Amino acid sequence: MDREEFNSTRFGPGMSALYKMDARNAKTSKYPITAVNFNEALLELKCRDGDYIWVRCESVDILPIAESKK
């Protein structure tokens, strides 16, 4: 997701993102979005182990709400 898409997205409860941890690694994982920092274009994602990570918007693809609930 680029900065323009980030700025125009209406974030809300139940949203998830596909996060690619490494540009060289094509594997992505689905994470719930728990917070958004609009000034820095960051998303807070909840990991399976209960920890939270902040990632740049360029590192994720937002899933539609229907896909987030699967």
Q: Would you spell out the secondary-structure blueprint of this structure?
A:
Blueprint: H1 3-8, E1 16-19, E2 29-37, E3 42-46, E4 52-56, E5 60-63, H2 65-68
Antiparallel strand pairs: 1-2, 1-5, 2-3, 3-4
Overview of the structural elements:
The chain is mainly beta and 70 residues long. The chain has one domain (3-68): SH3 type barrels (Roll). It has two helices and five strands, in the order αβββββα. The protein has helices spanning 3-8, 65-68; strands at 16-19, 29-37, 42-46, 52-56, 60-63. The chain has a five-stranded antiparallel sheet with strand order 4-3-2-1-5. The chain starts with a helix and ends with a helix.
CATH architectural designation: Roll
Would you list the SSEs in sequence order as H and E? Answer: HEEEEEH
Total domains, how many? 1
Mean pLDDT: 87
Annotated CATH topology: SH3 type barrels
Name the CATH class.
Mainly Beta
**What is the helix content?**
10-25%
Which residues form runs of ≥5 with pLDDT under 50?
none
Summarize the biggest pleated sheet.
5 strands, antiparallel
Cα distance spanning the termini: 21 Å
In order across it, which strands form the biggest sheet?
A: 4-3-2-1-5
Our count of helices gives 2
What structural class should be given to the helix and strand makeup? Answer: mainly beta
Note the overall shape: globular
Number of strands: 5
DSSP strand content:
35-45%
